[in-house]
Amino acid sequence: MTILLLFGTLLLCILLGVPIAISLGLSAIFTILFATDFSLTIVAQRAFTSLDSFPLLAIPFFMLAGILMGKGGVSKKLLDLASSLVGFLVGGLAMVTVVSCMFFSAISGSGPATVAAIGSFMIPEMKARNYGKGFAAAITAASGSIGVIIPPSIPFVLYGVVGSVSVGSMFLAGIIPGIILGLSLMIVSFAISKKHNYVAAQEKVSFLEVLRKVWDAKWALLIPIIILGGIYGSIFTPTEAAVVAVVYAIIIGVFVHKELKLKDLYQCFVEASIINGATMIIIGLSISFAYLMTLEQVPMKMADFLTGVSSNQLIILLIINIFLLIVGAFIDTISALVVLTPILLPVVTNVGVDPLHFGVILVTNLAIGFVTPPLGVNLFVASGISGVRIETIAKAIVPIFIMLVFSLLVITYVPSFSTFLPEYFMGG
Amino acid sequence: NDSSGEAKTSKDSYEIRVAHLVNEKQSTHVALEDFKKAVEERTDGKVSVTLYPNGSLYASDREAIEAVQLGNLEMTVPAVAPLANFNSKFMVFDLPFLFDSRDAAHSALDGELGQQLLTELEQNDLKGLVFGENGFRNMSNNEAPIEEPSDLDGLKFRTMSNPVHTASFNAWGANASPLAFGELYTALQQGTYDAMESPISLYYTQKFYEVQDYLTKTGHFYAATVMLTNNDYFNNLPEDIQSVIQEEAENWRANQREIAAKQDAEWLKSLQDEGMKVNELSDEQKQVFMEESQSVYDKFSDEIGQNLIDMAKDAN
Amino acid sequence: MKGIKLLDRRFEEVFLFLSMVAIVGLIFYQVVSRYVFNDSITWSEELARYIHIWQVWLGASFAIRMNQHIKVEVFRDLFNRTIRKVIDCIALFLWFFLAGVLAFYGTQLVLNLLGTGQLTPAMRIPIWIAYAAIPVGGILMCVRLIQQMILLFRPNTLEEGTS
Ligand code: NA
Ligand code: NA
């Protein structure tokens, strides 16, 4: 009964267009009011305690660093580098989009931010060269998903905090799966481009020219080295790494590229704060929702249910993947992580899945959710910058989606893609 | 200020939710299972007890204590350290080398000192039933066995977020700073921190033996726990239920301490089997540590109250 | 009128900017102090955490003005303009209710903490100062939601929020 009230209210509020964070909070409030004898001070208390965590502070600063780098003129340099690498292939511009999103992912922790940074250059460019406008927006939206798999990654930070897994190890775990997703998007771009006769963007360039582009993009390429090197060299924690990246991005933007003025800095800081507010209150309110689920012992029931269906790791992971793809269509990444990590993580670790590997599976599913309607944040951003209707993008994304799901299965059933780097660098 | 407690006086069933942080294997939880059984049996099922271990309901002691205080949770069993934020008298337990032995600690906590502290809690809307224990905290590091304070020189030492703890370690020469517990394992593995301190049980249950080589049985802090309910909630329970709970709390205490002692011995051996090198401090060596922490006593004695400190010391 | 416009546009914004600068400064100083002065600060993380919580709840309020909250609008989009307005109105009311709960129960929580005198672990300052972010955020959200309600029925009085 309590559970019905909880989920019924949630669904109703979401359908009415109430923001997801608020819907989660409201369903917790109504459930507490009508099905328990608790006081609503619980909701207020949790709105505070759920955010009282230092590792969570990495999230706003990885956002801010991404915004500063995007405005500070590095997107263009990353695009030039990507063009020199893959621009000569069939479907050159689509390839360049995928590869520049991969590069930008190593700076930004967010999917939508990656779409915005690369898409605002590439979608108009593709449209101008007669690419289907649906495909142009769809491939950008999908490439943006890599933003949360290649480190740094906001969902990995959150998974680490909620699931008590080291954030640094999660970052390492995402590198190979992120590259796999990128390659699969290049493959599907190639096939679609071949079919529609989208040609190369430019001639093949010499190795020396590539090196020159690398040199031009050096300030941007140093960011992942600072972040990852800093974390693995035990120089700083992920949160400190995010702040160092912010300071670095300011210095590069103001003094080296000279594209950031004081007024831009103000705007970037405010923009990051607003997105952070809208993102973090999801954590602040979904934790009350998760609390009621724990109180109703949903995690235990879910575990019993899943292990009742099968004790086979492969089958349990398959069921979870299907479930997560459906959830990802309707719910945003942050709420899904806060609510589902405590439920699913104990189930899968019980059947022998490595928590790092599961983190990658979980986040990859939710990253695919970025491009599945009705709630696909990357679709919204891609539509916003290109003016292409959501429906048109959604149609064009079908083959890309199938390819992403295929990569998801590869990542799910070959654990060492996720666990190899963390084991190699951090011994587990 | 808690209305839900008053509404319950006429009810014929009561639910006691107990939320705590430790895992199901640890003595606190094992003894709580007996507590649950006994309370439910002795009240003919009128009272039902549900246990939420592993921080599944409240992720920190501070949060759980606050929830009990607000009347949103019936019971919790926190370490006493975070209670010092609620009532500064509880800082007495943060002082280094306060008790010489388990027996001394037990006699102080079950006697006048304990009673005085539990009564203190009523001002904070809390009702403390009994003191349990996580045992003595010990030090570990990756450099060498610790024998005297100078062995701590320059060690990057993780402490709890507690001013007395940090002050104590800095007084002994360590470079002490707090760090979130969840980040500790990785920090030790990567060498961001060299050393830590905790009860034996955590070294075993959280696998710190994998990232720490030397364990020294310093017993520098005695880590008590306390079984807490909301004061109004408890006082509004029917008297027969109150006395069942109080008696079973005392049984829980005896039971928990016994299991804790057994587990400490067992797990210490397991730690050695896993390759940790264990050494013990002699009384003389402890004396040196104690002398070098006088500045900490001087600094905090006014805030805690000299008479409480004397009462604790008298138990030795 | 000009004053109100300035307040509408800049009230949370200036706080958001300054608090973000403060946290960056604090954490960067923590890193520098550890490596350059070889000195670990014990209170910087706690202070950064509390400023951040304030920032989140004020940012959430400003995000209402800037239309930045994540929602699913496909269902609502199925209807004509009039019904859409009704649905939006209900959604704003529900949201207002939640903001009201945060404001009211957050205040109760703060008063309770004032009474029990709980201190923060590292800085040992009264913890209600940090908790006050919840009721203040709730009240600001209420104000922003009333403003949205007015905008819903008089769409031309204020310029649309942009990011
Ligand atoms: Na990324
Ligand atoms: Na989706």
Automatic annotation (TrEMBL), chain A:
Family matches, as InterPro entries: DctM, TRAP_DctM
Keyword annotations: Cell inner membrane, Cell membrane, Membrane, Transmembrane, Transmembrane helix
Transmembrane segments: 51-69, 78-96, 135-158, 170-193, 214-235, 241-257, 269-293, 305-327, 334-353, 359-381, 393-414
Membrane topology category: Multi-pass membrane protein
TRAP C4-dicarboxylate transport system permease DctM subunit domain: residues covered: 7-416
Cellular localization per UniProt: Cell inner membrane
Record's signal peptide: none
Protein name from the UniProt record: TRAP transporter large permease
Automatic annotation (TrEMBL), chain C:
Pfam families reported in the protein's UniProt record: DctQ
Xref: InterPro entries: DctQ, TRAP_DctQ
Entry keywords, A to Z: Cell inner membrane, Cell membrane, Membrane, Transmembrane, Transmembrane helix, Transport
Keyword Chaperone belongs to the record: no
Residue ranges of every copy of the Tripartite ATP-independent periplasmic transporters DctQ component domain listed in the record: 23-154
Keyword Transmembrane helix included in the entry's annotation: yes
Membrane topology, as annotated: Multi-pass membrane protein
Record's subcellular location: Cell inner membrane
Taxonomic superkingdom: Bacteria
Transmembrane segments annotated in the record for this chain: 14-32, 47-65, 86-105, 125-146
Family according to the record: Belongs to the TRAP transporter small permease family.
Name used for this protein in its record: TRAP transporter small permease
Organism per entry: Pontibacillus salicampi
